[in-house]
Amino acid sequence: MKTAYFDCAAGISGDMCLGALVDAGASLNEIKRALKGIPLTGYTLTSRRVTRSGIAATKADVVLQKSKSHDTHAHARKWRDINKLIRSASLDDSIKQKGLKIFKTLFEAEGRVHGDPFDAVHLHELGATDCIVDIFGTLIGMDLLGIEKVFSSPVNLGQGAVQTSHGLLPVPAPATIDILRGHPVYASEIPFELTTPTGAVLLKSISSPSLSLPRMTIASIGYGAGNKDISGLPNVLRIMIGEEQPSGLTSSPEDTVVIMETNIDDMSPQYYESVMSRLLEAGALDVFLENIIMKKGRPAIKLTSIVRESDTDKMADIIFRETTTIGLRHYRTERKTLEREIRKIRTQYGIVRYKISRHAGKIVTATPEYDDLRAISEKTAIPIKELAAELTAKPGTRLD
After folding, report:
1. Where are the beta strands (DSSP E) in 65-196?
2. What pLDDT digit, counting tens, does each position of 230-267 carry?
């Protein structure tokens, strides 16, 4: 599968996405030709070669023509305006649908941040012509390169403040951080806005977060330049494109999970069993503890839960109620699992449940359930380890 990895060490913006795709081989002329299908005027799309901290990159620029029409309409579009514009465009339907989803996400984020009804939200910077061109130029560029799947690194937000139509706002801008909920982020000491709302919504809409580069054969690399040449950090978005290499594992029906972590140094060890039991009963996929050393040399416990994305609020509520922690970390990640099922098997000791795991359609493990082994051990006085070895070697006959 044609896969791209977005390396966001210097953040991400719409023009950086577009520049990186052009740098990786997407034809700017073909992108411009496709963009003509959008009934949008008053701009010119260009690209040029620049360097950022010694790294050669492509800078994409949307040059706007100044006019009264542009000043009064392009900076104050509502959802109905964007929706009409996109639906009337002569573009591939899949690109139109992706664009609609992306802009709806932007309007929803702006509405939450400013407390405005969805239909009343005006997008200023976000609704401008350059934003529309950056977003659809990126979608078109990905389509031209045949990219089917996108992963992304944790994203650098930067810090400081940024001037907007609402005045001076802290970095990350409220809309940016609202959009990036659930995505791994961090803030370096670079005193600039490294990730814009446009970059954030593209990242969240087209990619899955990955803490490391996925297993892939890289065929091309593109560097998209940001506006500033920042001292000490190449201000570029790096995109690596190639073929994803299969790990040999069968995908689980649910590949995306959320890791929830918290460090606790002031709770009695007696309470952890109850906390873990409640999390598992509530649907956690796994819960485990690790010994750690915190600041000032304090021994502590890291409580980690692997949960479904839809269960994060429920799990957070349990952890806050049942432990002494005052904060949680959580991030989405991908997982691969073997196909699994539980079978009841008739053995010389009665009915025993086995966990059956398959790889490439073949059974690779058949393990008797611990609770059943313990029950048999209590009745027969045979050690659990002996029962496990015997029943694993001779699993008996299938019951259902």
Report:
1. 149-152, 155-156, 161-164, 167-170, 185-186
2. 988 999 999 999 998 765 444 444 477 899 999 999 99
Quote the Cα angle for 289-294-297, to 5°: 125
Mean pLDDT, residues 72-85 taken together? 76
Res 166: pLDDT = 66
Q: What is the dihedral of CA 330, 331, 336, 338, to 10 degrees?
A: 20
User: What's the angle, vertex CA 184, arms to CA 180 and CA 188, rounded to 5?
Assistant: 95
3-state secondary structure of 359: strand
Higher pLDDT pick, 44 / 211: 44
CA distance 377 to 354: 16
Q: Is-above-0.70 flag for pTM?
A: no
Distances (CA, A) of 217 to 1, 24, 165, 241: 10, 15, 44, 8
Q: Which residues pair with 50 in a beta bridge?
A: 57
Looking up tokens 């992108």, which residue turns up?
31
Higher pLDDT, 315 or 165: 315
Nearest to 57 by CA among 213, 226, 192: 226
Helix (H, G, I), strand (E, B) or coil at 274: helix
Contacts of 71 (CB under 8 A, 6+ apart): none
Q: What would the two tokens of residue 342 be?
A: 């539980």
3 state SS of 119:
helix
- Which tens digit of pLDDT belongs to each residue from 160-170? 877 766 678 78
More confident residue, 394 or 378: 378
Over residues 193-204, the mean pLDDT reads: 94
Query: Quick one: which of 125, 91, 88 has its CA closest to 106?
Result: 125
* Interval 172-188: pLDDT, tens: 889 999 999 988 999 98
The C-alpha angle 157, 19, 168, rounded to 5 degrees, equals: 35
d(Cα 109, Cα 129) in Å, to the nearest integer? 19
SS3 content of the chain, % helix, strand, coil (to 5): 35, 30, 35
End-to-end CA distance of the chain: 38
Residue 300 in contact with residue 265, Cβ under 8 Å? yes
d(CA 5, CA 256): 17
How far is residue 97 CA from its own chain's centroid? 20
331 touches 183 (CB < 8 A)? yes
Of 170 and 28, more confident: 28
Confirm if 82 and 123 have CB atoms less than 8 A apart.
yes
